[in-house]
Amino acid sequence: MTVVERREIALVDLLDRLLAGGVVITGDITLRIADVDLVRIDLNALISSVNKQVPSPWPETLPEDLPRALPEVS
Amino acid sequence: MSDMSGLRYVYAVCRPFEAPLQAELTGVAGNPPKLLRHGDLVAVVSAVPEGDFAEEPLRRHLEDLDWLSDTARAHEKVIAALTTVTSPLPLRLATVFRDDSGVRTMMEDEGERLHTALERIAGRVEWGVKVYVDPEKSAPQSPAAEPKAKPATGRDYLRRKRAEHERQETTWERAENFARRLHEHLSRHAQATRLHPPQNPVLSRAPGRNVLNAAYLVDRSHSEEFVELVDRTKDEEPGLRVELTGPWAAYSFSSLDDYGQRAAEGEYDQGARGAYEGEDRR
């Protein structure tokens, strides 16, 4: 086991807590930007943009409907 | 605080505390955090420019990994400083109000629930425990894995493929059992637990697949013991890696609403994405 010392906190560990944790306050005087769904959508956009920049280390799994699109072998 | 212009970024709400904040401490947008007291609550806030933190620019910024990273680190720096003097109740990243009076109104309206949440985390910290599995390394040595020569026949090839597949199955099963046992064990030493979804390997850049990503709320006074518990799992399973992070402020236990709604079984369930498990066992 590796006990990670607090040299540099990994961004993902931080985002687990800052985007999925913490008190969500939505009063009408707030700008409503702490809204969970908004942040979740933005994080998804973020992950997909990171995915585009960094190729996945393993082959992507094929979408389930792909084999059906292949020509049939008779 | 009336001299601060711009919007108000709120990091945390705390009970009033005596110790001063570090003089050099800066927060999001480089401004020093200030304390804004309202009744028995203190909000930790700093001024942020409207050009970056109004709804529209913020929405754009949140999709910029560098901006998000800097902001998250600045937020955590303030929370970490607070953690040395009190048990802060952290707010979700990018909680922004128009002005001080907006922050006061929030504390007035949410006062009771904030107090309840503060009471729950008083004197406690959060520890993060993750389990990773590397199927290559954790595969037990079996004769089927050794021959590197080309399979002589198609049947040999299929046999080898099947053996490989079975070995992987065992690896996942072993990893899952280990993660479940570890989670159950650690839950017994925590006031509350929460399962986060396994981390995206592309974002984490961590080798192996993340099979457990859990948070535990632990009394400060029992933290050393908790760390030792995790440390003892070190050599239990070859090919599985356990990572401990913390102590964190109680980020994962700061909900004002759904806390303690679930039964106290603390059952391990990968499907329980981010849901609270277990009740406060004070």
TrEMBL record, chain A:
Keywords: Gas vesicle. GO terms for molecular function: structural molecule activity. Its main location: other. Residues 55-74 are annotated as: Disordered. It comes from the Bacteria. InterPro entries: Gas-vesicle_GvpA-like, GvpA. Pfam families: Gas_vesicle (PF00741). It is found in: Gas vesicle. Belongs to the gas vesicle GvpA family. This is Gas vesicle protein. One of its GO terms (cellular component) is gas vesicle.
